[in-house]
Design a protein that fits this description.
Length: about 325
């Protein structure tokens, strides 16, 4: 097995989509976070390709995929994943999503439950409003102009110094300094920066995250779900992991003590072991349209006749009352 999983390309709807594909067996789809690419999974894919078909796309606007002026919402990304899997002849898969990719994985499971076998959500977005102030600032109207400064001579060295300082100060964000520097390097041109900002604004504004999955996560009943988080995540706080775990029936939660926003980089062996154990000890979701209708008609646990019952599922209901405008279609 080669250490490098080859990057391939296919044109879908007129846009070139880049993706990594290797192995044979049940399908695992890896979805990266905002500003990242399939390269983020380089330390994970070869080991899993021994027993599974691994697919890791560069989402549109990221990596080696095209970067058009397009729809970069989580729903559009979920559609793009479906279409790529259609091109590859893959009917069902376990989705493993990090950060924005975790939100896309949840959206995929909501839109296409019949095609989803399991969910592995890694430091996933879409659970609570909180997110690092850095991303909130980048969502502002002046962001594109500010990001263009990154292309000036000497700015990479300045960025390296700033991230190094965060690390030396022991901040949570500093835990991921080398990875964050790689993400800055992935914004070398105007097209990349524009796609990054459009993707970010679809999910974050100056107040924080603007979409939530909590209003529909009860539909995950029967969907094997694993939540993996770093205890020192400086981008999306670990309390979101506990919130999602409470809200998703039957989910499992594992927290990587001392890890930041990229637990699969901080401890790849543990990450691999957790994912492999989860897959080995769960059966693929058996989606039923009848059961789906029953869940929809019953509504969220803790609701009756359209009115929340504060005696049940308090944490979820409080979150929804506070942020009722946040919903992904």
């Amino acid at each position: 097995m080669q250490d490098d999983v080859e990057l391939r390309h296919h044109v879908v709807h007129g846009y070139r989509r880049a993706f990594r594909l290797a192995g044979r067996g049940p399908a695992l789809v890896f979805l990266h976070g905002i500003g990242d690419s399939s390269a983020t999974w380089a330390g994970i894919l070869p080991a899993l390709a021994r027993n599974y078909t691994v697919i890791a796309p560069d989402l549109l606007g990221h990596g080696a995929s095209d970067k058009p002026r397009a729809d970069y919402s989580v729903a559009a990304y979920a559609n793009g994943v479906r279409d790529l899997l259609g091109v590859l002849g893959i009917d069902r898969a376990t989705l493993i999503g990090h950060s924005l990719g975790g939100g896309v994985a949840m959206q995929f499971a909501y839109q296409f439950p019949e095609r989803t076998e399991r969910l592995v959500l890694v430091s996933a977005g879409g659970v609570g409003r909180e997110v690092t102030p850095v991303l909130r600032a980048v969502s502002l109207p002046v962001a594109a102009a500010l990001l263009s400064v990154l292309g000036l001579p000497g700015m990479r060295a300045q960025t390296r110094l700033a991230l190094g300082l965060l690390k030396r100060l022991g901040t949570d964000l500093g835990q991921d300094a080398p990875t964050l520097l790689r993400l800055v390097d992935a914004l070398p041109d105007a097209a990349s920066r524009s796609a990054f900002v459009r993707s970010l604004r679809a999910v974050v504004d100056w107040r924080g995250q603007v979409v939530t999955m909590l209003d529909r996560c009860y539909l995950a009943e029967g969907m094997p779900t694993l939540l993996l988080w770093g205890s020192r995540d400086g981008v999306i706080p670990v309390r979101h992991a506990y919130r999602a775990h409470d809200a998703m029936p039957g989910s499992r939660l594992e927290v990587f003590e001392g890890a930041g926003h990229f637990p699969f980089t901080a401890d790849p062996d543990r990450f691999l072991a957790a994912v492999q154990h989860f897959i080995a000890t769960t059966r693929p979701a058996d989606w039923s349209p009848e059961r789906w209708r029953e869940l929809l008609r019953a509504g969220r646990p803790g609701t009756a006749a359209g009115r929340p019952d504060d005696a049940r599922n308090r944490a979820v209901e409080r979150e929804l009352r506070d942020e009722s405008e946040r919903s992904a279609t």
